[in-house]
Design the sequence.
RNA sequence: GGGACCAUAGGGUAGCUUGGUCGAUCCUUUGGGCUUUGGGAGCCUGAGACUCCGGUUCAAAUCCGGGUGGUCCCA
């Protein structure tokens, strides 16, 4: 039982291997692009969602819409439909009987939700609406799928939908959405770049799209979240109107934003190593594992003390377990590493005699002797927060080292294919941008900031600094 | 969208070129037993597989066609 594939040299193989060995998902389910969440993986998912929901619930209400969408609703918004029509699964039969109207399995829920918004919204008093739901969605991917990264069933899609009186309020909501996601990614110690997506790569039907991209260790970027300003396009399509204070009837402005399984994929991919998972403490299903070192003599005393420590930690709010299995200590250590439990406590007869325990950190493997008479809870709390800080710094440093300014167009391919995100200056022209993508065979992720000087491609005045990368 | 490769126990593999020796190899996993236990212990004894459909043949894990699934590369 070993992780095959080097994290850096053979990232794909390593990723497949860790998902299997650490029992995150079972991707042998016999339908392309669909896999099973296993108990260990599902717990990680649960704690990630818990953090996300905690952030969302401050300013959003959770709802749940149906899985199926009538064909007529899905077809209403032309641009939106074009973006998804190749990927929609259809329900065509009820039993043996063909349905009068085909039903789409949601590829995303705008067209399920917005007809209801038009029923709910009457007056400006009803606004803003801010709701979210965590659901599965289905997309008929024709390319080759990858577990958690490119799937046919997105099992975990937390999508938010908001409605506002003015365009400005919607724009502000986009910024609020970005801020929420930043907080989540900080909790997960996942580094990110926020990009204003180029016009040809925005969400179908949106005015503009901001996207969160992170960098995998093979140098490809992964889009892990998106935030869209929908303007009033959908409001017009779905006939959503409100009566303003002045008595006018107007279309409101909308936003939507979402995160998926990919957050968990990046969590695993970014922190994991050759020995297995490394999990940020806040989402580790088990935060501390206690390994009693047991010999024939003195077993009872050791177990008693181990349980005592467990209870203290439990009362202190930790998710803690004792590894009581009848296995050699070494085997348990390997499991501890594979499962990415942040802290391991060893306690044996020798330690008991010295009134000590040994604390080992998963991220650094540093060992520390810790007196049993000290305040264990605050000791471990500070240890966990150190782990989180370290993971965050490590991950951010890795990404920062691989974001490279490029000033000459013939260097783009070489530098990016070497595992970097390139920063280049761009005039902002659609044709020019497409030309850069075609020439380099890479993707422009979007605008990161303003720029002065010359466009790397056409030499006209540059407007933006943009990122270019190889993407998943 | 195009291409390459692949499918044998839970995981990884040998066998396939040249059909018969396969009642299918080895490692890992796994049940039971004994001895062990501060980093994957040892011995004994069990369990577990030729992706599916069709074709060729006296005979198919092996050859041919298709389906399904998987991996990688390019657009």
Sequence:
């Amino acid at each position: 039982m070993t992780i095959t594939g080097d994290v850096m040299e053979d990232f794909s193989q390593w990723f497949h291997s860790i998902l299997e060995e650490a029992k995150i998902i079972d991707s042998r389910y016999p339908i392309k692009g669909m896999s099973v969440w296993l108990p260990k993986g599902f717990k990680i998912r649960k704690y990630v969602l818990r953090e996300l929901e905690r952030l969302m619930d401050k300013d959003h209400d959770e709802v749940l819409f149906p899985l199926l969408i009538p064909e007529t609703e899905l077809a209403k918004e032309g641009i939106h439909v074009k973006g998804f029509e190749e990927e929609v699964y259809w329900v065509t039969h009820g039993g043996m009987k063909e349905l009068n109207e085909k039903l789409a399995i949601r590829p995303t829920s705008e067209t399920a939700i917005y007809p209801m918004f038009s029923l709910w919204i009457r007056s400006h008093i009803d606004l803003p609406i801010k709701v979210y739901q965590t659901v599965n969605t289905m997309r008929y991917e024709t390319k080759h799928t990858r577990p958690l990264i490119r799937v046919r069933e997105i099992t975990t899609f937390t999508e938010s939908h908001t409605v506002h009186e003015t365009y400005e309020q919607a724009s502000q909501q986009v910024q609020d959405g970005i801020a929420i996601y930043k907080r989540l990614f900080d909790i997960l110690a996942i580094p990110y770049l926020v990009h204003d997506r180029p016009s040809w790569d925005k969400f179908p039907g949106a005015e503009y799209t901001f996207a969160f991209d992170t960098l995998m260790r093979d140098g490809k970027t992964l889009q892990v979240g998106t935030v869209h300003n929908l303007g009033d396009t959908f409001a017009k399509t779905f006939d959503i109107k409100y009566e303003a204070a002045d008595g006018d009837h107007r279309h409101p402005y909308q936003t939507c934003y979402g995160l998926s399984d990919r957050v968990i994929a990046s969590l695993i991919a970014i922190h994991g190593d050759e020995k297995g998972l490394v999990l940020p403490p806040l989402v580790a299903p088990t935060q501390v594992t206690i390994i009693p070192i047991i010999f024939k003599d003195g077993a009872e005393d050791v177990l008693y003390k181990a349980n005592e420590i467990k209870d203290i930690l439990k009362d202190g709010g930790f998710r803690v377990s004792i590894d009581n299995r009848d296995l050699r200590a070494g085997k348990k250590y390997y499991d501890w590493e594979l499962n990415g439990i942040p802290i391991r406590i060893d306690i044996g007869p020798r330690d008991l005699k010295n009134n000590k325990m040994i604390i080992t950190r998963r991220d650094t493997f540093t060992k520390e002797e810790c007196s049993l008479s000290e305040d264990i809870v605050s000791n471990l709390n500070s240890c966990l927060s150190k782990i989180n800080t370290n993971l965050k710094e490590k991950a951010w440093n890795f990404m920062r080292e691989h974001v490279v300014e490029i000033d000459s167009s013939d260097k783009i391919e070489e530098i990016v294919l070497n595992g970097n995100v390139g920063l280049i200056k761009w005039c902002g022209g659609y044709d020019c941008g497409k030309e850069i993508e075609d020439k380099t065979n890479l993707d422009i992720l979007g605008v990161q900031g303003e720029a002065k000087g010359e466009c790397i491609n056409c030499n006209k005045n540059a407007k933006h600094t943009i990122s270019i990368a190889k993407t998943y």
Notes: The longest helix of chain A spans residues 376-401. The radius of gyration of chain A is 25 Å.
